From TrEMBL:
SUPFAM superfamilies registered for this protein in UniProt: TPR-like
Domain of life: Eukaryota
UniProt-listed InterPro entries: PPR_rpt, PROP1-like_PPR_dom, Smr_dom, TPR-like_helical_dom_sf
Smr domain ranges (all copies): 661-754
Organism placement in taxonomy: Eukaryota, Viridiplantae, Streptophyta, Embryophyta, Marchantiophyta
Keyword Repeat part of the UniProt annotation: yes
Gene3D superfamilies (UniProt xref): Tetratricopeptide repeat domain
Family affiliation: Belongs to the PPR family. P subfamily.
UniProt entry tagged with the keyword Repeat: yes
PPR repeats by residue range: 185-219, 220-254, 327-361, 396-430, 431-465, 501-535
Keywords, in A-Z order: Repeat
Protein name: Smr domain-containing protein
Length: 769
């Protein structure tokens, strides 16, 4: 008791006790509040005054004394079940309180002994901790805070409490700014909104916003940013914009966090609004705002995904100027972005900038630069970088794969094989991509035996083939007319449960059509139609060109094409099988035939509108090829004239002093139709023309993208047209000064030649059916 008496006497001599019921000296529990002087009591004196060290806690309050506002230390009793507010025991019991609330039960009953002693920071701590586990419990805590906490003016029972609370809500911050401190209620609202946003409870956030409006609680910048973050996490750009509008109405300027949240919302939107994000980013730079490293990285990633190279460059340059540390991953991303667009020069510049920054290139950087060169077909530069790569570090398998694929596409299949041997010697295990690139290189070079050996080695090494591997092998066996081996590949592909798409189906159709396995081809058509998979450009070309064949074995394929939902197949089968007309397609008198022809032209118009140039060229090439081989020359010309009418870029004669017929890009049948149509009209423009030139091309496959059987391949158009004109004793000759693939004759000689052969059907567009 001596210590207690001494402490009591010291306290009495220093401070003025305003409550006679204060029983610290006797050790009895204090039942009221005690305001002692204008300074806080030391912890030791507080424990002494409480007697047991557990019944008194001190808080600081502001009260009016006359006209002066002073700070007082207020001693208030703690519940018997609560410890004194000292660091160790208080912290442990406070965490126990949070655990009790999180465990469930009556939240108000659990908080009852604590309501009068919890500070604003502690209320918010409870809201955060409990809300991280269960947002509904956080809402219950918030309701208790609003209805019971003495920190809120409406819950204060005496004038001193009200004065103190009112002052705290409107006091000026200690750092001398003019912005008012947030009230305890606003701070609690801010915390709860943050909890709800992390739990994705946006409807509850909206409810709280309306509640604040009804209670006239005025938000501050921090609150608006928390709300903006809630909407930003779900990509709700319009909601974040509304928050910024409300800020403007209230006279609050958005800060860096606000604008970065708008950028994040634009990038997280269901359809990312990269343009919107870039606009906000530019406004930040114009207002000299610092942009965070995470925002830079998000913008570059989004620009790369959107293939917006200019925007990515703009962000990257600003990032370099900002002084942020740029790690290797970002350099690689920028090089890869330019590489994918074929911008190897820009990739070179970024690579040089990386070195100038003193950053040693990593393997990933070298891989990205190799990709840029390989995509652009710059093999010499690629191998130069690869040699430097090998001096710096061990090249990755990715680097070898890039070079193998690029060498194959460039026709340098020997180098692809050398790279394969090198990577094996370096201890790297060839992957599916490695073997597929090698096989594709061999197929492109016509090295089908090597492709076959590589495929078998791939299976021996237990490297799983991909859909691209199987497709390449099917094409190889098709080119060699090894239909049975190709069929075995198709069977194995199904056994491996490979996902079949239009590319694979197109290769399978080509295999079976070229091998005249028409029943199997018909089965593929039915399977594709059942799955809703439409043939690609090459697939349509193969099927339509196949209709040029005749015979009973073609019946299953023709019926399958007629029964499919594919309009191009219906058009083709109709044109090759419909009855003959008197004067081409347009002159038939039958009403049902007129309706069918109208439907055909509508399909042509649809393709011209919605399909690209390659698809249209392949479609018309295959169709004219089939009609020519069936002897339906006038129909083929009708198709050609329709193509010229619908497609401005389609091949047509150029008239002048030198009349030119360009046959490049046409199929053999299409080229012959165009030639005869051109010759039929020579007399109309012979007076204004002195010479005639036919441009066949020297290495034109003449089929667009479709691959078919006969009369196709490198130089097929040139061979067919030249042989045809020589057989007819035409005056056209290939002159060296004009270049390869060009036949020339004087117009006068051509007119005379045609007049001598006017009665010959070989020079007229008749139907032979």
């Amino acid at each position: 008791m001596a210590t207690v008496d001494l402490a009591s006497s010291v306290a009495s001599s220093i401070f003025h006790c305003s409550n006679e019921n204060f029983g610290a000296a006797s050790g009895r529990r204090c039942e009221g509040r005690v305001a002692i002087g204008s300074r806080k009591l030391p912890a030791g004196i507080v424990r002494a005054l409480s007697g047991d060290g557990k019944t008194v806690a001190s808080t600081s309050r502001w009260v009016y004394r006359g006209r002066r506002l002073i700070s007082q230390t207020v001693l208030q009793p703690l519940p018997a079940s609560s410890p004194a507010k000292v660091d160790g025991p208080w912290k442990r019991d406070f965490l126990d309180l949070i655990a009790d609330i999180a465990a469930g039960g009556n939240v108000e009953a659990i908080l009852q002994p604590w309501i009068s002693v919890l500070s604003v920071e502690e209320w918010n701590k409870i809201l955060l901790e409990v809300g991280s586990r269960d947002w509904t419990l956080a809402m219950d805590v918030f309701k208790v805070f609003k209805s019971r906490s003495p920190l809120l003016p409406e819950n204060c029972t005496d004038s001193s409490d009200l004065s103190a609370t009112s002052f705290r809500e409107n006091s000026v911050s200690s750092v001398g700014t003019e912005r008012a401190k947030p009230s305890p209620l606003l701070r609690a609202y801010t915390t709860v909104v943050g909890v709800l946003s992390r739990k994705g409870r946006l409807s509850e956030v909206d409810t709280l916003l309306h509640e604040m409006k009804d209670e006239n609680v005025e938000p501050d910048l921090r609150f608006y940013n928390v709300v903006a973050e809630a909407y930003s996490n779900f990509g709700l750009v319009s909601h974040v914009s509304q928050v910024m509008v409300q800020m403007e109405k209230q006279g609050i300027l958005p800060d860096r966090a606000t604008l970065e949240l708008m950028i994040s919302a634009a990038l997280k939107a269901k359809s990312p609004q990269v343009g919107k994000a870039i606009q906000v980013f530019r406004s930040m730079l114009q207002n000299s705002m610092e942009v965070g490293i995470k925002t830079y990285l998000k913008l570059i990633e989004a620009c790369a995904d959107a293939r917006d190279i200019l925007a990515a460059d703009e962000v990257f340059l600003a990032m370099r100027a900002s002084g942020h540390t740029i790690y290797s991953k970002t350099w690689v991303k920028m090089i890869q972005l330019h590489a994918s667009a074929g911008g190897y020069k820009e990739a070179e510049e970024i690579f040089r900038a990386l070195r100038a920054a003193g950053i040693p290139p990593s393997a990933s950087v070298y891989d990205a630069l190799l990709l840029a060169y390989c995509q652009a077909g710059c093999l010499d530069q690629a191998f130069s970088v690869f040699r430097e790569y090998k001096l710096a570090t061990k090249p990755s398998l990715i680097a070898y794969n890039y070079l193998i694929e690029a060498s194959g596409k460039g026709g340098r299949y020997e180098e692809s094989l050398a790279l394969y041997s090198e990577l094996c010697n370096n201890g790297l295990r060839p992957s599916t991509v490695t073997f597929t690139s090698l096989i594709c290189a061999m197929v492109q070079a016509g090295q089908y035996d090597k492709a076959d050996r590589l495929y078998k080695k791939m299976l021996q090494k237990r490297v799983a083939p991909s859909a691209y591997t199987y497709t390449a092998m099917i094409r190889a066996y098709t080119a060699c007319s090894w239909t049975r081996l190709g069929h075995e590949v198709c069977v194995k592909m199904r056994e491996d449960d490979i996902q079949l798409g239009s590319l694979v189906y197109g290769a399978m159709l080509n295999l079976y059509v070229q091998g005249r396995w028409y029943k199997e081809a018909a089965g593929i058509i039915r399977e594709m139609d059942r799955k809703g998979i439409e043939p690609d450009v090459a697939g349509y070309g193969v099927l339509i060109a196949a209709l040029g064949e005749t015979g009973e074995e073609m019946v299953p394929l023709t019926r399958a094409m007629q029964a499919s939902d594919w309009e191009p197949c219906w058009v083709a089968t109709f044109l090759v099988s419909a009855p003959s007309f008197k004067d081409g397609l347009e002159s038939t008198p039958e009403a049902d035939m007129d309706e069918a022809i109208e439907k055909i032209w509508s399909v042509f118009e649809e393709w011209a509108t919605f399909k690209d140039r390659e698809a249209n060229r392949s479609f018309y090439n295959a169709l004219m090829d089939a009609l020519w081989r069936r002897g339906l020359r006038r129909r083929a010309r009708s198709v050609m004239l329709k193509a010229r009418d619908l497609l401005p870029w389609y091949n047509r004669p150029r008239r002048g002093l030198t009349s030119v017929l360009d046959l490049r890009g046409l199929s053999v049948g299409g080229a012959q139709v165009a030639l005869l149509d051109w010759l039929e009209h020579v007399a109309k423009y012979s007076e204004n023309s002195t010479s005639m030139v036919i441009h066949t091309g020297s290495n034109e496959p003449g089929v667009g993208r479709y691959v078919a059987a006969k009369g196709r391949g490198v130089g097929a158009v040139k061979q067919a047209v030249t042989a045809y004109l020589e057989e007819m004793c035409s005056p056209f000759r290939e002159l060296a000064e004009l270049g390869p693939g060009k036949l020339q004759a004087r117009t006068e000689l051509v007119v005379n030649w045609l007049s001598k052969h006017d009665s010959k059907d070989a020079l007229r567009l008749h139907d032979y059916v």
